[in-house]
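thought: user wants a sequence for this fold. calling inverse folding tool.
action: design(structure=
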């Protein structure tokens, strides 16, 4: 089969719609369940490239949670400690390495991951399928699925959950094309390999770049390869913890990614872990409540009594001073940027979220000021010399 007709394009009024192989060859995918749509396939194919490269770069199983053609999270399959198990709502589950990767990818920014499309680098196993089954999600793409996994996934959406198997040996053509306003664009594929050599040009006084930081920087940069630009990614402990995508200003990317990284860490504070939720509150409602609780508007909600919908008793306000004291404990965060930092204000903002390791192309007329700012904070920064725009 070299063509698959779709219900519609990006929006219901955009018909006809299909995916097909222009050279007449077979599509490298099989739809095992459901009827994936246009945006589903965009997320699936971008997500598959991301996890395939993460696996190649780290040797670990990888997963990503995609929404509207940008990742909400990406991670490799490192074990989860007790705190991460709690904030990802998986403390009651057995977790294979692949399931750990998906728990991390889904859990970093659960607000953005709601209704995601999942990509897995390895054959989807039972443990991973159990996590997917209980989350609100549009579909999953992987190189294969065990029988147990397919049985579990068939229980979602009355058997209409989108399950796509991709041929992992498929290699796309070196030239890629797309049309905008009836005009065809053509370019060479972005085949840049993210490896140790790319991170070897350390331009700061601090030259220390431990193995764990290198892995996190690879995760950040590979994530950025498939994130709508401009984009910045914060990573720590084998996963992206904050992604700022599609902003016109570099510092707004950094602020957005930094605020998401802050939320990820604030959720690990005992004051948040011990929130008195009612027993019948579902996970998405808990996620929303936590997001509000750690936000600036929570004092207003306490005053209005809205807390009674989700909590058994009125929680104490999480003050700005308490949040800052907790965030000061976040250290050794890695940051990747898909283009150079034009001003040192990006470094100042990154410091507030515990960033110690940075990878960016370099090439700004103000590189010296950016390096000076990194030196002031004792950061280690590599210039890759390579931009990673994705549109």
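)
observation: tool returned 391 residues.
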């Amino acid at each position: 089969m070299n063509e698959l007709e779709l219900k519609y394009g990006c929006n219901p009024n955009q018909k006809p719609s299909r995916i097909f192989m222009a050279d007449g060859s077979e599509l490298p995918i099989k739809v095992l369940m459901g009827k994936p749509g246009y945006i589903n396939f965009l997320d699936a194919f971008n997500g598959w490239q991301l996890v395939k490269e993460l696996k190649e770069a780290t040797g670990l199983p990888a997963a990503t949670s995609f929404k509207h053609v940008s990742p909400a999270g990406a991670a490799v399959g490192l074990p989860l400690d007790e705190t991460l198990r709690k904030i990802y709502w998986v403390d009651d589950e057995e977790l294979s390495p692949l399931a750990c990767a998906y728990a991390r990818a889904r859990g970093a920014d659960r607000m953005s991951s709601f209704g995601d499309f999942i990509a897995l680098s390895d054959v989807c196993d039972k443990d991973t399928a159990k996590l997917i089954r209980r989350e609100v999600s549009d579909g999953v793409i992987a190189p294969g699925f065990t029988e147990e996994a397919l049985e579990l996934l068939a229980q979602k959406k009355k058997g209409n959950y989108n399950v796509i198997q991709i041929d992992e040996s498929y290699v796309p053509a070196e030239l890629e094309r797309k049309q905008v306003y009836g005009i065809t664009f053509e370019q060479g594929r972005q085949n840049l390999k993210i490896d140790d050599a790319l991170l070897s040009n350390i331009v700061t006084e601090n030259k220390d770049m431990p193995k764990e930081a290198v892995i996190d920087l690879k995760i950040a940069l590979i994530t950025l390869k498939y994130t709508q630009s401009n984009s910045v990614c914060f990573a720590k402990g084998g996963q992206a913890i904050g992604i700022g995508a599609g902003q016109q200003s570099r510092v707004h990317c950094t602020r957005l990614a930094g605020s998401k990284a802050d939320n990820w860490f604030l959720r690990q504070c005992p004051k948040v872990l011990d929130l008195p939720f009612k027993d019948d509150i579902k996970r998405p409602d808990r996620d929303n409540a936590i997001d509000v609780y750690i936000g600036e508007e929570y004092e207003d909600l306490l005053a209005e009594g809205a807390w009674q919908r989700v909590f058994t008793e009125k929680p104490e306000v999480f003050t700005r001073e308490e949040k800052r004291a907790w965030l000061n404990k976040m250290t050794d965060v890695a940051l990747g940027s898909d283009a150079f930092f034009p001003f040192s204000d990006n470094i100042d903002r990154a410091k507030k979220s515990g960033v110690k390791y940075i990878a960016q192309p370099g090439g700004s007329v103000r590189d010296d000021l950016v390096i000076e700012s990194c030196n002031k904070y004792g950061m280690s920064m590599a210039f890759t010399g390579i931009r990673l725009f994705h549109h």
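thought: summarizing for user.
answer: Here is the designed sequence. The chain is about 35% helix and 20% strand.
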